[in-house]
Each structure stands twice: as structure tokens, then as C-alpha cells.
Amino acid sequence: MNETEILHRLVYYSRNEVEGGADALDAVIDQILAVSQRNNTEADVTGALLFNTGCFGQALEGPRRAVEATFERIQRDTRHSDVTLLAFETTTTRAFPNWSMGYVGAKPADADRFGGIAQTSGFDPSRMTADRLLQTLHGLAMEEEG
Questions:
Q1: 71 pLDDT band (50/70/90 cuts)?
Q2: Is the pTM of this model over 0.85?
Q3: How is domain 7-145 classified at the CATH fold level?
């Protein structure tokens, strides 16, 4: 198996540096998703994004170089600060095979589930492990897919 065939998964969190009210945040998230979905489809990267007003939590998966390049762009993006890598490892399967970049936890019905996560962790991702963040993203993604 060559380097481009080996799947890698990266899990990180960062602090939100987007200023403005709910409408401004929604517009920024919509833009992030549109660009990510286009770029990730071309690069064979899949993943999911969880966002609240304070933090981003994300999992990216695909070929190593594509995942690294995506993460480097995120680290340079001024909408993020304190970008913290929680895990970067090989994997045999994708957790998000159908999502070039899914956005999870946005539905009002997710508020209860997300609220529980926030209570136990404060959705302070610095207190979450990579596995816990990945499980959260994956569980919400499966609910989105129905």
C-alpha cells in the first residue's frame, strides 16, 4: 500500500475568532462549509465539523498529504486561534465516508444532546479527548444521515 492509499485521521479543536452576532456567525460557517466541501471533494478528504460560539471541533480523514495540507490552511486561518491537535493517526476506515465536510449539531433537536456534552465537558474541547470528540462528531453525523 503506498502513501496515498493509507488513510489518516486528524482530530483538532480551535477557538473561534469570528466576531459578530448569530447572523454573522451563520454566514461564516456557511462559507467555511462551502469552501471545505469543494476543496475536500477534490482532495479526497472527508470529515465533520462541530461549532459553537466559542470553539470549533473537527475530524478530517483521507490521504496523509491532503489531510496535512487542509490542517495547515486551518492553522493559518484567522477565524481560528489556539488550534490544538488532539490526534493524527492512520485508520483502516473512514468515520465520515459520505461527508466531504459535514456540519453537525446545528439542528434545534441537537441542542439537548449538545447541551449534555457541554455540561460534561463545558464543550471546552481542551477537556475532551480525541476519541470523545470523534465519537461526538460520529454520533451526530449518523443522526444527520438518519
A1: very high
A2: no
A3: Alpha-Beta Plaits (3.30.70)
